[in-house]
Design brief:
Blueprint: H1 16-29, H2 33-45, H3 50-68, H4 82-91
Length: about 100
């Protein structure tokens, strides 16, 4: 039985710099690049979605830093603080966490 019977090709685009880094990393970890990519896709789509959860935690910390900064307290004529405006923009970056495969 062929090991490729249940495997299907998928082409991805990456920069030359990314390609070089992936090849070096895969060689150091002694895993095929295709396995590395499959694991990355699985991780991104896994229940609990640690990738997006970590990203969202970074956004949350950035919002706290803006609120706690001296400059963040500056008020605009609209009644909003600089921190409020920054936080509104950061809220647009929050990612939906995956429910799994």
């Amino acid at each position: 039985m062929s090991r490729f019977k249940n495997s299907h090709p998928l082409m991805i685009y990456m920069t030359l710099k990314q390609r070089a880094a992936v090849k070096i990393y895969a060689r150091q970890e002694r895993i095929p690049v295709s396995q590395l990519v499959r694991e990355g896709i699985d991780m991104r789509m896994a229940p609990g979605d640690r990738f997006n959860a970590g990203f969202n935690e970074g956004i949350k910390q950035a919002k706290e830093a803006a609120k706690n900064s001296k400059g963040g307290q500056m008020m605009f004529p609209s009644g909003k603080s600089f921190a409020d405006i920054v936080c509104d923009d950061l809220n647009n970056l929050i990612r939906k966490e995956a429910d799994g495969l």
